[in-house]
Amino acid sequence: MFPRDSFSCTGELITGGLGSSRRTHYFCKSCLNFVYSQIAAADQRINLRTSVLNDATSFKPFVELMTDEKMSWADVPAVHSFCRYPETLEELQALMDNYSIACLR
Questions:
Q1: Looking at the whole model, is its pTM more than 0.70?
Q2: Any alpha helices (H) in the chain, and if so which ranges?
Q3: Hey, how many other C-beta atoms are within 10 angstroms of the C-beta on 94?
């Protein structure tokens, strides 16, 4: 996750996927690549897909989402894991605080 005001996109985006009133997913209009998602209760942050970055090697997995739907052979060395998503603003804030501390190390 990244602060919303630290992110910009030059291409045109569309919404889609399994969004809800609480969560919106944004895709590149021309190639339909999943770019980021945003949670309504935490609109100051976005969940950027590191796969869209030119170099994501400096990002170590910190949180794993949707684990109840992952393949049995998939193994991600993330510090935190959720079967779906963090459900409350407090849970999300604690996750962001832990991430901030981990980034300082």
A1: no
A2: 89-104
A3: 13
